[in-house]
Amino acid sequence: MKAPNSWLQWVYLILAITGGVLPTMANIDFMNQYGPAFDISLFVKLSNVNPAAQSLSRDLIIGAGAVTIWMIIESRRLHMRHLWLVLLSTFTIAFAFAAPLFLFLRERRMQEMERIG
After folding, report:
1. For the chain, which terminal residue's Cβ has fewer other Cβ atoms within 10 angstroms, N or C?
2. What pTM did the predictor assign?
C-alpha cells in the first residue's frame, strides 16, 4: 500500500497548487474588472446572478462545509499538525486549494504513522 500513497500525495499537491492558482487568477480578473479592492458583497451578488451560478455557489458552500467538518475530525483522529494553515487558506486562497492541501498533509501523516508502526 506504500506505493499508491507515495504518488497519491503528489497528485494532491498538484491539485492544491492548481486549486490555488486558478481561483486566484479569476479573483485577479474580478478585481481588474470591478475595481482594485476585492468587494466581497459584489462578489457574492455576482456568484448568485443566475440559477447556474446559484447552483455552483450552493454546491460549493454545502460541500465545503461538510468536508471542513470531516477535515477537523480527521486531523484530530490522526493527530495531524498544521490544520490551522488549511483552515486559514480556505478563506484566504480557495477551498480548491485547502482541500487538496489537507489530503496531501493527511497522506504524509498516514505514511509517517505507517513507518512508526
Report:
1. C
2. 0.90
